[in-house]
C-alpha cells in the first residue's frame, strides 16, 4: 500500500521534547501507511541521538536528515531538504517541540480530504501547553467544525492555526510558485496559495498541542527579539508586507480587499516599533493608537517629538550603551 501521509518535522535542540513528539506520531491509528521525515538542524543537546535511535527502531517509517551546520542561521529553507524525500499524497507538519494528542488525528483529516476534493487545506483547534505539557490555553480558530471559504481564510490569514494541526495535498505544495516566497513570512504564503486551490475545513476537536516559550522555539525567539532586537521584528513584518504585495499581484487584485486588514496590521506594528507618531495619528491607524494605554501613547509621543529626552534618559540609565539603542 502506498504511503498516504508524510509528516514533516523540524527539530533543533529539542532533546527534552522530541521523544514525545515522535511517540505522538507513532501512536496514530490509521488504515493507511504514513512516514516521518525529520530534519535536525545541527542540534547540540542530544536531539540528533534521540532521533537516530527512533530511526533505527522504525526504519520503514522514520527518515531522518542530520545537518552538521545550522541552516536556519544561514537563512536556508530547510524544507528544501525534506520535500525530495516525501512520498505521501498528503503532508502534515509538526515542530519538534509540539505534539499530537489524538490518536485518530491523521485518519480524521485524511477521511475528510478524501471525501472532499474541493478542500485543499484542513486544520484543527489546539492547546497551548507549557514546558511540562500542562495546558495553558485552549485555542479555537473555529467554534464548531465547518468549511471556511477561500476569501474568509485569506481575509484572516493570521488567525492562529497551529502548524501541528494542518494537512494538505503534496502536489499543491510542490506547485507553490517561487515568486511568492517572502523571507520570514512563515506559513502564510503556502496557506494563502492553497486557498487558491479550494476551501478549508476546520475541526473543532483539539487534536494537537503547541508548546510555548521553549528555548529556541518561534515563540521564544520572537519574545527575545522584540526585547533585544526590534529591528528583526520590523524585518519580519516587512516580509509579510512583501508577500501580500506579491500575492496581490499574482491574483491580479482579486483578494485586495481581503488583504487590506492584514496589510494595515503589519504597518501599524512597524510604525509602533519605529515610534512613528505622525503615521500612527493618521487613518486607518489612529483608532488602534487611541486604544493603547496612556503610558504607551506617551512613550511613543516622546520618542517621536522629544528624542533628545529619550537619549538623555538612556544615557543616565545605561551609559554609552544606551545611545546604541535605536528603539
From TrEMBL:
GO terms for molecular function: hexosyltransferase activity. InterPro entries: Glyco_trans_2-like, Nucleotide-diphossugar_trans. It comes from the Bacteria. SUPFAM superfamilies: Nucleotide-diphospho-sugar transferases. Residues 6-134 form the Glycosyltransferase 2-like domain. It holds the Pfam family Glycos_transf_2. This is Glycosyltransferase family 2 protein. It comes from Candidatus Eisenbergiella merdavium.
